[in-house]
Amino acid sequence: FVGSARRVHEVGFGRAGAEPTKVTFNSLLAAAHVAAKRRRKAGGDDDDGDREETVRYVRETLQRMQRAGLRPDRVTINAALSCYGACGAVDSAKRLFDGAVRDGSATTVTANAYLQALAVAGDAAAAVELVGETMPARGLRADATTWNTAIAACAGVDDAKALELLDAMPFSGADAAYAFSAALAGLEDARGALAVLRRADDARAATTPVVNAALAALDRAGDHEQLRRLFAEGFDARGLERDAVSWNTALWSLARPEHAPDAALDLFATMDDPDSRSYGAAMAAAGTGGRAERALELLAEAPFSDLALYNLSLIHISEPTRQEAISYAVFCLK
C-alpha cells in the first residue's frame, strides 16, 4: 500500500500539478489503516518491516499536510492514530494523542484509537491509566469500545487487572460481549474461566463467541472434562447455537493423546457439515488413538484439497500405514 500511495503523490500531485486537499490526506490515512489491519491479521515474516514502513508513511503524510498549509483535523488525527494502533506504535501514538489533548481536539474516538495501539503492544498499565485517569480528567467519556479495548489490552498481560476492569465496566448485553471474550482469551485457569462465564451470564453477555472463548480457556487449562461438559450443555442452556469454532475447539482439545481421542472421534461422527479443521482434528484423534485405518478412511473421504490435512495425516499416522498415506496424499495433490 505504502508504495502505491507514494506513487499517487508523485504522479497525481507532482507531475499532474494537482493540489492535494485535506480530504486527500485523510482518505490515504484511512486506507493505510485498513491495509495495516489486514497485514496484522494475516501476520507473516515481514510483518515488522511492514509496520515500520506504515509508521514512516503516516509521519510523512502529516508532514506533507503541514508543508501544504493544511492543519490536521479530528478525522486526520483519528486516522493517523488508528494506523499507529494497528502497527502497535505506542510512542508515535502517545505523542499524537498528547498533542490532541493539549489543543482540545481529542475525543472519545481519539482515545479509543490510542487505546488500540496500547492493546496491540500489550501495554496494560498505560491502558488502565488512560481509562481510569486521563480520560476522566479531560472530560472524555469512555464508551463500550473504550472498555472493550482496555480489557483486551490487559488480557494475557495482567489478567487480574482485566477482571477488575470487567467488574467496573458500566455496560451489559451485546455491548459487553467482546470484553468478556477478551478477558477469557488470556486465562489458563479453568475455575477462573468458568467464573468469568458466570459473570457474562449475569451481564446478559454470554454469546456464542463468549462461550467459545471459555472453551478455549478450558483447553489451555487442560481441563477436558469441564470442556466436554460446557460443550454438551453450555450452549443449549443459554439458548445459543454452536458454530464451527465451537466444534473445532472441542474436537482439537479432545483429540490430544492425553485427553480423549476416542471421544473426539465420537463427537466428529455427530457433525452434520464438518470443515477441513474438523477433519484434521478427527485424523489427529484417530492417529494418536492408534486407529491408523480410520485416519486413512477420513483422509480419503475428506471433501477438501487441503495440504494441511495431508500433513496432519503424515504426522499422526504411524508406520507401516504412513507410507500408504504418503502415496495417497501425493496422488491427491497431483
Residue runs with pLDDT of under 50 for 5 or more positions:
317-321
So what's the overall shape? Answer: elongated
Tell me the major beta sheet.
Answer: none
Order of helical and strand elements: HHHHHHHHHHHHHHHHHHH
Distance between the termini: 35 Å
Q: By helix and strand content, what is the structural category?
A: mainly alpha
**Helix fraction?**
over 70%
Number of helices: 19
**Based on DSSP secondary structure assignment, what is the total number of beta strands?**
0
Mean pLDDT: 82
Written account of the structure:
The chain is mainly alpha-helical. 75% of the residues lie in helices and 0% in strands. It has 19 helices and no strands. It has helices at residues 2-15, 22-42, 47-67, 74-87, 90-102, 108-121, 124-137, 144-154, 159-168, 174-185, 190-202, 208-221, 224-237, 244-254, 261-269, 276-288, 292-301, 307-316, 321-333. The protein starts with a helix and ends with a helix. The relative contact order is 0.05.
Topology summary:
Elements: H1 2-15, H2 22-42, H3 47-67, H4 74-87, H5 90-102, H6 108-121, H7 124-137, H8 144-154, H9 159-168, H10 174-185, H11 190-202, H12 208-221, H13 224-237, H14 244-254, H15 261-269, H16 276-288, H17 292-301, H18 307-316, H19 321-333
Helix pairs in contact: 2-3, 2-4, 3-4, 4-5, 4-6, 5-6, 6-7, 6-8, 7-8, 8-9, 8-10, 10-11, 10-12, 11-12, 12-13, 12-14, 13-14, 14-15, 14-16, 15-16, 16-17, 16-18, 17-18, 17-19, 18-19
